[in-house]
Write a structure and sequence with these properties.
The chain is of the alpha/beta class. The protein contains 2 helices and 7 strands.
Length: 122
Protein backbone atom coordinates (compact mmCIF):
# COMPACT_ATOMS: atom_id res chain seq x y z
CA UNK A 1 0.00 0.00 0.00
CA UNK A 2 2.77 2.48 0.91
CA UNK A 3 5.53 0.98 -1.22
CA UNK A 4 5.67 4.02 -3.48
CA UNK A 5 4.75 6.73 -0.98
CA UNK A 6 7.34 9.17 0.31
CA UNK A 7 7.23 8.96 4.10
CA UNK A 8 8.85 11.31 6.58
CA UNK A 9 9.21 11.47 10.32
CA UNK A 10 8.43 14.20 12.76
CA UNK A 11 8.70 15.13 16.40
CA UNK A 12 7.34 17.76 18.75
CA UNK A 13 8.93 20.76 20.42
CA UNK A 14 7.63 23.29 22.91
CA UNK A 15 9.01 26.40 21.16
CA UNK A 16 9.05 26.65 17.36
CA UNK A 17 11.14 29.85 17.32
CA UNK A 18 13.85 28.31 19.53
CA UNK A 19 13.81 25.14 17.43
CA UNK A 20 14.14 27.18 14.23
CA UNK A 21 17.20 29.01 15.61
CA UNK A 22 18.79 25.81 16.89
CA UNK A 23 18.28 23.68 13.78
CA UNK A 24 18.93 26.52 11.34
CA UNK A 25 21.71 28.51 13.02
CA UNK A 26 23.39 26.15 15.47
CA UNK A 27 23.21 22.98 13.38
CA UNK A 28 23.23 24.73 9.99
CA UNK A 29 20.28 22.89 8.46
CA UNK A 30 18.01 24.43 5.86
CA UNK A 31 14.75 25.08 7.70
CA UNK A 32 11.42 26.29 6.35
CA UNK A 33 8.34 27.31 8.29
CA UNK A 34 4.73 26.97 7.24
CA UNK A 35 1.45 26.77 9.19
CA UNK A 36 3.32 27.16 12.49
CA UNK A 37 5.46 24.07 11.85
CA UNK A 38 9.04 23.63 10.69
CA UNK A 39 10.46 21.39 8.02
CA UNK A 40 14.09 20.37 8.40
CA UNK A 41 15.50 19.76 4.94
CA UNK A 42 18.11 17.03 5.33
CA UNK A 43 20.72 16.30 2.64
CA UNK A 44 19.52 13.66 0.21
CA UNK A 45 15.96 14.92 -0.04
CA UNK A 46 14.73 13.79 3.36
CA UNK A 47 12.45 16.15 5.27
CA UNK A 48 11.63 16.03 8.97
CA UNK A 49 8.55 17.75 10.39
CA UNK A 50 8.91 19.66 13.67
CA UNK A 51 5.59 20.66 15.19
CA UNK A 52 4.53 22.51 18.33
CA UNK A 53 2.88 20.62 21.14
CA UNK A 54 1.37 22.00 24.30
CA UNK A 55 2.71 20.30 27.43
CA UNK A 56 5.58 18.86 25.36
CA UNK A 57 7.53 16.05 26.98
CA UNK A 58 10.93 15.43 25.36
CA UNK A 59 11.51 12.09 23.70
CA UNK A 60 13.57 9.73 25.85
CA UNK A 61 15.15 8.16 22.78
CA UNK A 62 17.18 9.54 19.88
CA UNK A 63 14.83 11.24 17.41
CA UNK A 64 17.43 12.25 14.82
CA UNK A 65 20.93 10.97 14.00
CA UNK A 66 23.52 12.95 12.05
CA UNK A 67 26.18 10.72 10.44
CA UNK A 68 29.59 12.36 9.96
CA UNK A 69 32.98 11.32 8.60
CA UNK A 70 34.93 12.68 11.59
CA UNK A 71 33.13 12.66 14.93
CA UNK A 72 35.92 14.47 16.77
CA UNK A 73 35.76 17.39 14.33
CA UNK A 74 31.94 17.46 14.50
CA UNK A 75 31.87 17.39 18.31
CA UNK A 76 34.49 20.14 18.50
CA UNK A 77 32.55 22.35 16.06
CA UNK A 78 29.23 21.74 17.79
CA UNK A 79 30.76 22.44 21.20
CA UNK A 80 32.09 25.75 19.85
CA UNK A 81 28.49 26.58 18.83
CA UNK A 82 27.27 26.00 22.39
CA UNK A 83 26.06 22.39 22.09
CA UNK A 84 26.54 20.37 25.29
CA UNK A 85 26.91 16.62 25.02
CA UNK A 86 25.01 14.24 27.25
CA UNK A 87 26.66 11.80 29.61
CA UNK A 88 24.53 8.82 30.55
CA UNK A 89 25.14 6.70 33.61
CA UNK A 90 26.71 3.37 32.65
CA UNK A 91 27.97 4.55 29.24
CA UNK A 92 31.64 5.49 29.36
CA UNK A 93 32.42 8.50 27.21
CA UNK A 94 35.68 10.29 26.56
CA UNK A 95 36.47 13.90 27.53
CA UNK A 96 34.53 15.18 24.50
CA UNK A 97 31.42 13.14 25.36
CA UNK A 98 31.92 10.48 22.67
CA UNK A 99 30.95 6.88 23.41
CA UNK A 100 33.45 4.58 21.67
CA UNK A 101 33.05 1.24 23.49
CA UNK A 102 30.91 -0.58 20.90
CA UNK A 103 29.41 0.23 17.54
CA UNK A 104 30.25 3.45 15.74
CA UNK A 105 31.57 6.35 17.83
CA UNK A 106 28.52 8.37 18.89
CA UNK A 107 27.74 11.43 21.00
CA UNK A 108 24.30 12.53 22.15
CA UNK A 109 22.97 16.05 22.66
CA UNK A 110 19.56 17.68 23.00
CA UNK A 111 17.65 20.37 21.16
CA UNK A 112 16.13 23.30 23.11
CA UNK A 113 12.99 21.20 23.76
CA UNK A 114 15.06 18.39 25.30
CA UNK A 115 14.69 15.92 22.41
CA UNK A 116 17.71 13.64 22.05
CA UNK A 117 19.84 13.91 18.90
CA UNK A 118 23.12 12.25 18.02
CA UNK A 119 26.17 12.67 15.87
CA UNK A 120 27.84 9.41 14.88
CA UNK A 121 30.80 8.50 12.77
CA UNK A 122 30.17 6.39 9.70
Amino acid sequence: MFGHTKAYSGFAVNDIAAAKRFYGQTLGLRVSEEHGMLTLHIEGGTDVLVYPKDNHTPATFTVLNFPVDDIDKAVTELSARGVRFERYEGLPVDEKGVFRAEGPPIAWFTDPAGNVLSVLQE
